[in-house]
Design a protein that fits this description.
One of its GO terms (molecular function) is ATP binding. The chain contains eight helices and eleven strands. It is an alpha+beta fold and about 400 residues long. The radius of gyration is 39 Å and the shape is rod-shaped.
Length: about 400
């Protein structure tokens, strides 16, 4: 039980890693929300300030045009001067006759009056689209209107929260990538450490078992077939030790007859599983089709998938292994069973470390199988199809040797 306990610690860390990602995104959203709220308040205050300035401008004009001729209006013109000097707020004054006057709108002086009015009409429509309510000036005998747009500063502030939100999302995405990379790196260290330690621990009892088999071989009253099968199991354990020792280091790939490798392993597997499980191999590949593989690791992949299939069938059913050529110069190996299938909610998890539907499963078989095929053999391992109570099909795709 000790190895299981030691291994459960990294898996717990991986589960916490998911919460770290959620917390990271939550903090990012809160930061973005606070920024939007703060900037929105700032924009509202600036809008109100600009509106007050235009209202002051309108009151100045109204007072200047309707006041007594002897009234001192110099201080109003001083206010207008300050508005012109210190703001970029586009302003259009429409008098009772429909004539347009402007402030902070650049128009070439060389243009005719009609051309200037045409340009101001276009600008007026643009300003109206900004949804600022025009300021009405009651001149007594008629009403005139002041239309105003948003200053450049206000426009920038409106887009600033969006740009800031984009920056937060980019940072959040980079943080997610970093956490994912850290997780994979941690997984690699766990797999390598576990595999190396397992290979080391198996070495000593294997040596002893080999010696005991040699002693049994010389005992006349021992059935020779038993000794032969024991020898096969010891060879199998040596193969498993070799597999584990290859994890974490670059395995040596050799050209192998892919069908012969699978046939050889299935022959070994058949006598070690329930007799109620039948395994058939069908191949449409060319005779002696070679593939660049590490035999020990590749057999491990076939073993993991087949044993999962046997478990899914509860020791009774049919398994079919089909080898065929695929497009883009690849070999497909489809392994199908007639088991209970995989729930839709679990299909995205089956290759994740630590995920298992078995009571005593560690959730490593398919994870390691996928790593072996994709990291070491430059192939693909996918769940091709699954149906509840009808079975599942896994597909291994290997590149043909050049």
């Amino acid at each position: 039980m000790k190895p299981l306990k030691e291994f459960s610690l990294p898996l717990a860390f991986y589960n916490r890693d998911t919460w770290l990602k959620v917390a990271f995104f939550a903090v990012s959203v809160v930061m973005a929300g606070f920024s939007l709220y703060f900037t929105d308040g700032l924009v509202t205050k600036l809008e109100e300030r600009e509106k007050q300035q235009i209202e002051l401008y309108a009151e100045t004009i109204r007072y200047a045009l309707t006041s007594d001729n002897n009234a001192d209006i110099n201080f109003f013109f001083e206010r207008i001067k300050k508005i012109n000097e210190n703001n970029t707020i586009p302003v259009i004054w429409k008098d009772g006759s429909g004539h347009l006057n402007s402030i902070n709108i650049q128009i070439q002086e060389s243009l005719s009056t009609e051309q200037k009015q045409e340009i101001l009409q276009q600008k007026l429509q643009e300003i109206i689209l900004e949804n600022n309510k025009p300021i009405e000036m009651d001149m007594g005998f008629q009403k005139e209107y002041i239309y105003y747009g948003n200053s450049q500063l206000l426009k920038l502030l409106r887009y600033y929260p969006l740009s800031q939100l984009l920056v937060v999302l980019i940072v959040a995405f980079l943080g997610y990538i970093f956490l994912s990379y850290s997780r994979r790196a941690e997984q690699n260290r766990v797999w390598v450490g576990l595999a190396k330690e397992t290979a080391h621990q198996l070495g000593t009892p294997l040596s002893s078992l080999t010696a005991w088999v040699e002693l049994l071989r010389n005992e006349p009253h021992i059935n020779p077939e038993i000794v032969v099968e024991l020898s096969k199991d010891i060879q199998r354990l040596e193969t498993i030790t070799t597999r584990f020792s290859n994890i974490g280091s670059t395995p040596v790939l050799k050209l192998e007859d892919i069908e012969a490798v699978i046939q050889g392993f299935i022959s070994y597997l058949k006598i070690r599983i329930s007799s109620k499980v039948t395994i058939e191999i069908h191949s449409s590949l060319a005779a002696n089709q070679l593939a660049n593989i590490n035999k020990y690791l590749f057999e491990w992949v076939i073993e993991n998938i087949c044993k999962n299939g046997v478990d899914a069938m509860s020791g009774q059913g049919q398994m079919r292994i089909e080898l065929k050529e695929g497009k883009n110069n690849v070999i497909h190996i489809d392994i199908s069973d007639t088991g209970k299938g995989i729930l839709p909610s679990n299909t995205s998890k089956i290759f994740s470390p630590g995920f298992s539907t078995k009571k005593r499963g560690w959730g490593l078989g398919l994870t390691l199988a996928k790593r072996i095929i994709e990291n070491y053999h430059q192939g693909k391992l996918i769940l091709k199809s699954t149906e509840i109570n009808k079975g599942s099909t896994f597909r291994i795709t290997l590149p043909k040797p050049v």
